[in-house]
Amino acid sequence: MGITKQYLKSKPICKVTFSVPAEDAKKVAVVGDFNNWSPKGSALKKLKNGTFKGTFDLPKEGTYEFKYIVDGNYVNEAEADRYQWNEFAGAENSVLEL
């Protein structure tokens, strides 16, 4: 798994690219507090090499909790900036710091 961050000089935005290697998966989405934990509109596109990838514009100077949904199962990002306990979920979430 992996995250790439590209900060724009002209706008207060960071282009964040999420990459999830999941050859056997049918669907992967990224959900978090930046999209109200909704998988609608946050599906990642499957590439020929079996990696799911997607880029999202997120406001700079923010901290976001998120997870991947891989075929209905919630999965954390191994390379997250850190992890944070979420009482509502009863589990740790990945954290993205911009």
Automatic annotation (TrEMBL):
Q: Which branch of life, at top level? A: Bacteria
Which controlled-vocabulary keywords does the entry list? Kinase, Transferase
PROSITE patterns tied to this protein: CBM20
Q: Name one Pfam family in it.
A: AMPK1_CBM
Which ranges carry the CBM20 domain?
A: 8-98
* Gene3D superfamilies given in the database record: Immunoglobulins (2.60.40.10)
GO molecular function terms attached to this record:
kinase activity; starch binding
Q: Which family does it belong to?
A: Belongs to the 5'-AMP-activated protein kinase beta subunit family.
Q: What's this protein's name?
A: Glycogen recognition site of AMP-activated protein kinase
Lineage per the UniProt record = Bacteria, Pseudomonadati, Bacteroidota, Flavobacteriia, Flavobacteriales
